[in-house]
Write a structure and sequence with these properties.
By secondary structure, the chain is an alpha/beta fold. The chain has two domains: 84 residues, no CATH class; 338 residues, Alpha-Beta Barrel (TIM Barrel), CATH 3.20.20.80. It is 40% helix and 12% strand. The strands form two sheets. The chain has an eight-stranded parallel barrel, surrounded by seven helices. Strands 1-2 form a two-stranded antiparallel ribbon. The two termini are 27 Å apart. One of its GO terms (biological process) is cellulose catabolic process. Keywords: Carbohydrate metabolism, Cellulose degradation, Glycosidase, Hydrolase, Polysaccharide degradation. This is Cellulase (Glycosyl hydrolase family 5).
Length: 437
Amino acid sequence: MLPFGLIVLSLLNQLLMLLAFADATLPPGDPPRVIVRDMSLGKTVVGSQGELLRGATVAYFKFRRETVGQPGYPAIDYATDPAFWDRMSETGINAVRLVFFDGWQRSHGDPNVDPFRPFPFTSLSPADALLQGAATQAEANEISRSDRRNMLRDFDTIVNLAAERNIYLMINYHDTTGYKDPNFITGLQPGQRKFSYTEGQSYLYQFWNRIAPRYANRTHVFYELMNEPVGFHPNNYTADDVFQMSRLFKRVRLLAPDTHLSLATFTTPASFNNRTMLRIAVELDQSGVDFTNASIAFHPYDISNLPHVVQPIAQTMRRYPVINTEQGLPASLKLSEEEPDAPGYFYHLLGSRTMERMNVSWFAWNTFETDQFENVWTDIFQADAILKNYYWGTELMLAEAMSRLENSMNPEAQAAYMMAKPLFDLYTNDPNAELPE
């Protein structure tokens, strides 16, 4: 076998010479769907050519939408700003996580303002509007229609902004340590900012019943069904939690048969007992979740005195696809004390470096507006990768070149693609990679 460096050089030369046969630009339309790829260390979610996803995060929520331009708030809505998307595209990003933050807004409030009313959130139903102060049923009906219309308009804009820049988009329903409907009857106690939960899941299902079919045929879009649904470790996931996640999976799968679905979304991979990340994945598998087009999501936060080790991720990805949907910063670099610690593994400063080492796709947290994006993505994640020689820019350039070759109508370009693809696969998956002990 050729030395790895020569393989890479051969691939580069091959593509640069043969791109002359391909179309000058990528074909119009959405990027092809993400796929599950089984590599030397295990399975993850990747772009259509097999390239890892390196993502940023944007947010949608009603309060943000309605405060844009007001004193003390952002002057523009960065989630729908073409210039912001251009900047993300320029800096090595090929995926974006769209956080629907109104799930979190709905489960939190200020007891000093009104202990029985949450923070402002998108009214997906008239009942939501009545809860937030609509005086009549007619007013509630109009508010919910307007909120849904505004949400879908902005989501459509974001979906199109991503497609126009050849960026994958993962839509995420976002609450923390919960996914059910809040108990507004008991309300909040003094000092308490999060409502307890009932057994209902109306808001979660209303969201996915609207979103899942709407973007089912947009091939660059995939879904993360819940965010950190259980606090805080895999061992805290009960049999009922597994059942509810599987139930939602089957509902969304019915509405979006070909869309990749990520689920579970652990706050941390670490467990206190044998109900591990892998154990929960097995139970989801046994409950009917088909992992041929689905994955286990996780966040690598270090939130307890358990060892911060990579083994739970490594064990899981040998059997099931995994994806890191929220990569935070280590304590020495985090932007606020509210952020949990997210150091890398193997003595890496950054978790992003570990993800690159393990061939696991990942999304950066706290990139919601320009200053955050530049501070977190450009000055930390990207800069560290360039400095320490693990930056992925060449891989993304080659993936785009591969797409051009694959989609060309020129027979010689098609032949070039067939020759180049095995080299690209080898370049993006070192067969000699091993996890440190």
